[in-house]
Design brief:
The protein is mainly beta. It is built from 1 helix and 5 strands; from the N terminus they run E-E-H-E-E-E.
Amino acid sequence: MTNAIAVKLSAVEVKLGGKRVLGPIDLEVEPREHLLVVGPSGSGKTTLLRAIAGLQRLDAGTVAIDGTVASVGQKLIVPPQHRGVGFLFQGGA
């Protein structure tokens, strides 16, 4: 990991079925910083994590990981398996 921002989202938006379900959101997570994402069901927590991991295409905005642009709009620049991102769901989904 470099000294760059670990995860940076700029104007990220995700739409599902034509309806915006996330964003626009700007977010920066510093290296070694922990971030807790909480909210009610349907608030976009899983969509946010999927967008960072590259499992959900963006409709707008940019995701950068360790200073490398990983997604710009609907274009995946760094595929999910090369992002070094993982997450674990609370329930055994």
